[in-house]
């Protein structure tokens, strides 16, 4: 900071009395406005500071708590250590021997010591065999065909692992009807095509049409497939080969209202956005 002092505007500094100006080099103090004398820091300290400007501040700081010689007041004193109340020793241990419980109150029992009250109750269930026999190797899967399905306590009939897997796969297949799309038919490809400016409506007009149900029903071939979703008529044809659920599924709603089927299949799909460029018009009564 002292390097700033010489450059301070002279207006800020009070005019020094001629005594100080005329003083010799031994006198390092100048008179301030109050008549007292203050040391001229701009001379002596400047040299010291220029030696190393990157000196970190002293730690602990001179006025820090660490350096304070003042007695620790109650407010500054750390809180007293909490007094822990140890749990009473377990009855089994005191029954067993006269040695007092350890400070940690942990019962470390040698194997020979009977567990007494701490013994677990005898198990009422039999251990499952898990189909592993002492001879090694997996036994052939047991297929039990239960004829007494009327019994309320009977469980589902046991099945072979292969049958289980088959059943799960079939269910999964039914649930997720995704198909392998052809090359160039990914979601990204569709997005590109939609933004290409190509006429995906197939009407040759940007003007939305008013489509009657009778008109809609005429468009039900793959080359000319229209469907209605939420009152808006879309041309499905350009999207057919891009549909992750397959062309066949999408063609089910050609020429008719597909809203219900769409919502039942994948309500989360943003159809309005995906098919925006395929919007032909709106369904009207007539
Ligand atoms: C223009 C209307 C439609 C559009 C834009 C559309 C779009 C999509 C999209 C983006 C997916 C992939 C969903 C995902 O990965 O989560 C999909 C999957 C599917 N879609 Fe469509 N879809 C339409 C109509 C339909 C209709 C009417 C049906 C049924 C008749 C259908 C049946 C399916 C099936 C079965 C799947 C596979 C299901 C799955 O992976 O979970 N879609 N569709």
Explain this structure.
The chain has 286 residues and is of the alpha+beta class. The protein has a domain at 187-284: Flavocytochrome B2, Chain A, domain 1 (Roll), CATH 3.10.120.10. Helices cover 23% and strands 10% of the residues. The chain is built from nine helices and seven strands. It has helices spanning 18-22, 41-51, 91-96, 161-175, 187-195, 213-216, 247-251, 259-266, 271-274; strands spanning 29-31, 37-39, 209-212, 220-221, 224-229, 232-235, 279-284. The strands form two sheets. It has a five-stranded mixed beta sheet. It has a two-stranded antiparallel ribbon with strand order 1-2. The two termini are 89 Å apart. The model is unreliable at 6-11, 18-47 and 143-154 (pLDDT under 50). Bound molecules: protoporphyrin IX containing FE (HEM).
Top CATH class of the domain at 187-284: Alpha Beta
Helix run count: 9
Give the bound compounds: protoporphyrin IX containing FE
Poorly predicted sequence stretches spanning 5 or more consecutive residues? 6-11, 18-47, 143-154
């Amino acid at each position: 900071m002292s390097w700033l002092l010489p450059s301070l505007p002279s207006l800020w500094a009070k005019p020094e009395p001629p005594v100080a100006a005329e003083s010799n080099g031994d006198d390092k103090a100048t008179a301030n406005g109050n008549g007292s004398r203050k040391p001229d820091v701009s001379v002596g300290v400047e040299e010291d500071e220029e030696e190393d400007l990157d000196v970190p501040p002293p730690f602990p700081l001179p006025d820090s708590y660490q350096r304070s010689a003042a007695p620790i007041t109650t407010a500054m004193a750390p809180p007293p250590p909490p007094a822990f109340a140890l749990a009473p020793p377990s009855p089994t241990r005191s029954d067993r021997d006269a040695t007092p419980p350890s400070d940690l109150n942990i019962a470390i029992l040698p194997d020979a010591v009977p567990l007494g009250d701490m013994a677990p109750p005898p198990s009422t269930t039999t251990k499952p065999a898990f189909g592993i026999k002492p001879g090694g190797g997996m036994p052939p899967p047991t297929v039990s065909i239960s004829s007494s399905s009327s019994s309320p306590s009977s469980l589902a009939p046991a099945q072979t692992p292969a049958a289980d897997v088959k059943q799960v796969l079939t269910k999964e297949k039914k649930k997720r009807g995704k198909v392998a799309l052809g090359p160039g038919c990914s979601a990204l490809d569709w997005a590109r095509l939609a933004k290409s400016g190509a006429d995906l409506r197939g009407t040759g007009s940007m003007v939305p049409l008013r489509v009657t149900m009778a008109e809609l029903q005429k468009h039900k071939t793959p080359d000319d497939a229209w469907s209605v979703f939420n009152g808006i008529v879309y041309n499905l044809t350009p999207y057919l080969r891009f549909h992750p659920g397959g062309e066949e599924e999408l063609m089910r709603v050609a020429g008719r209202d597909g809203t219900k089927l769409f919502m039942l299949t994948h309500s989360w799909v943003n159809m309005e956005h995906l098919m925006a460029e395929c919007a032909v018009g709106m369904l009207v009564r007539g």
